[in-house]
Write a structure and sequence with these properties.
Cobalt-precorrin-4 Transmethylase, domain 1; 2 domains; 259 residues; binds S-adenosylmethionine; 25% helix; six-stranded mixed sheet; elongated; Methyltransferase, Cobalt-precorrin-4 Transmethylase, Domain 2; five-stranded parallel sheet; alpha/beta
């Protein structure tokens, strides 16, 4: 192991600074170097000492600022120089965050590495919009998928589709905005009910959070009309019904700022 230096992969939560955990704040406060993504609350870096180096390796959609290999090499290089490196990542580092690759790169290089779990958008963003991913008497399971893979956007696999068609589990989709038309077609073709509730939550936990609730058959059309943009979490299933927790469940179809 490298004397002194180490890397901590830190989950920064979905966007609001007060959704960083206490452990995450402490790790950031002790860092010599912070290497951060785009979707992190950068205000948590405001009070760092002048000696702290802050590196933005954030990736805007379709634009890769620093390739993953470059990020891995950067973490290893700083740690080998004896620095305390915080790798600040959106949500949880191990949920579609390539945290596993960064962890493995450190291990392979003999660099000490640990993890501070984060509040994942997969659960927190629906919750902030009042959508429980499980709800007694409605759904007892949930399934989290990405619509974006190494091969590009994908349609849903049979397990994900079965969650919806069999009303077996809530389906939570990350990175799904541009794939939404294909997702809707796939689910309807597989036999999903056209009025299956869908909630699309954009920019969760930020002042610009917007929640759109719509039936499955109209979801892609409505998202297009409203100009729905990433980052967004898409929830499909009965828990997404408008009014579920108020006891007035119906099929809503409204772009509703702040939910
Ligand atoms: C590369 S994945 C990273 C997920 C992250 N590791 C996590 O646990 O939340 C990025 C995707 O997470 C979702 N996401 C992250 N932050 C979000 C937010 N504040 N509001 C809505 N969706 C968000 C979106 O689906 C976005 O495209």
């Amino acid at each position: 192991m490298t004397a002194g230096g180490h890397v901590t992969l830190v989950g920064a939560g979905p966007g609001a600074a007060d959704l960083l955990t206490y452990r995450a704040w402490r790790a950031v406060a002790r860092a010599d170097v912070v290497v951060h993504d785009r979707l992190v609350p950068v205000e948590v870096l405001d009070d760092l000492g002048e000696h702290v180096e802050v590196v933005d390796v954030g990736k805007a959609p379709g634009r890769h600022k620093v390739p993953q290999d470059g990020i891995n090499a950067l973490l290893v290089r700083h740690a080998r120089a004896g620095r305390r490196v915080v790798r600040l990542k959106g949500g949880d580092p191990f949920v579609f965050g390539r945290g596993g690759e960064e962890y493995a790169a450190c291990v392979a290089a003999g660099v000490a590495v640990d993890v501070v779990p984060g509040v994942s958008s997969a659960l927190a963003v629906p919750a902030l919009a009042g959508v429980p991913v499980t709800h007694r008497g409605t759904t007892t399971a949930f399934h989290v998928v990405t619509a974006h893979t190494r091969a590009g956007e994908q349609e849903l696999d049979d397990v994900a589709a079965g969650c919806v068609t069999q009303r077996a589990a809530t389906l939570v989709i990350l990175m799904g905005v541009s794939a939404l038309p294909a997702i809707v077609t796939r689910l309807l073709d597989a036999g999903a009910s056209p009025d299956t509730p869908v909630a699309i939550v954009e920019r969760g936990s930020t002042p610009d959070q917007r929640v759109t609730r719509v039936g499955l058959d109209l979801a892609a059309k409505r998202a297009d009309e409203l100009g729905v943009r990433a980052p967004a979490v898409i929830v499909i299933g009965d828990v997404a019904a408008h009014g579920l927790l108020e006891g007035t469940s119906d099929r809503g179809d409204v772009g509703d700022p702040r939910g």
